[in-house]
Design a protein that fits this description.
The protein has 73 residues and is mainly alpha-helical. The chain has one domain. The chain has 3 helices and 2 strands; from the N terminus they run ααββα. A hairpin with a 2-residue loop joins β1 and β2. The radius of gyration is 18 Å and the shape is elongated.
Length: 73
């Protein structure tokens, strides 16, 4: 019996890391932060703090996914 080969993975896009590196800081510019600065809170946490940490977490996850794709090549 021959074991089945692992499913083919789609190769990462070549400019994904560059696009993430360029787009990431744009979400922390003052005009964008002003849009996220609202007068509401979630469990006592201001909306701006939730926005900053959410964008930061999404950036880390996306960079990890692109790095993981490069490591398997």
């Amino acid at each position: 019996m021959n074991p089945e080969p692992p499913p083919a993975r789609r190769p990462p896009r070549p400019g994904a890391r560059a696009a993430l590196s360029a787009a990431g800081p744009l979400f922390f510019l003052p005009p964008v932060l002003a849009v996220a600065d609202r007068d509401w809170s979630l469990f006592g946490i201001p909306a701006l703090v939730i926005y900053v940490f959410s964008v930061w977490l999404v950036g880390i996850v996306l960079i990890a996914l692109t790095a993981h794709g490069r490591a398997r090549r």
